[in-house]
Amino acid sequence: MTISHKVTIHNRQQNRTISLDVPEGDYILRYFEDKGEKLPFSCRNGCCTTCAVRILSGDMDQSAGIGLSIQLREKGYGLLCIARATGPLEAETQDEDEVYEKQFGEYLGAIKSKKGNPFDM
Question: At 81, phi and psi to the nearest 5?
Fold first, then answer.
């Protein structure tokens, strides 16, 4: 018998909520896609922030990803493309720029405040 967990995603981009019973250990994004549900994604490797979600309740295994800092993961953010179902989960999709700013905003702001192009040698 396969153990499944109810995973609910509030898709802000489509203004809809989707719930599926995802088998434990399955990749959440891939499972939703296999069931015909479209969620935001880009790289599928846990490197960008297109599939980022804010976890409202529950947890997921996202140990394979490098696209989010430890600090953001500790604040309840995750990446659906590399996330595996480990228990019931409720999450909300995020705007990619919003998550990117939270992760890199301070660093990018420091670069922008310097004169000239930071990539000029």
Answer: -65, -30
**Mean pLDDT across the chain, nearest whole number?**
87
CA distance 75 to 27: 21
Query: How far, CA to CA in Å, does 13 sit from each of 40, 45, 96, 106, 121?
Result: 8, 21, 11, 26, 40
What class does CATH assign to 4-113?
alpha beta
Q: Which helix (H) or strand (E) holds 81?
A: none
Residues 87, 58 contacting (CB under 8 angstroms): yes
CA distances from 96 to 1, 41, 71, 79 (A): 37, 10, 17, 11
Q: What are the backbone dihedrals phi and psi of residue 111, each rounded to the nearest 5 degrees, phi first? A: -65, -45
Q: How confident is the model at residue 110 (pLDDT cuts 50, 70, 90)?
A: low
Where are the chain's structural domains?
A: 4-113
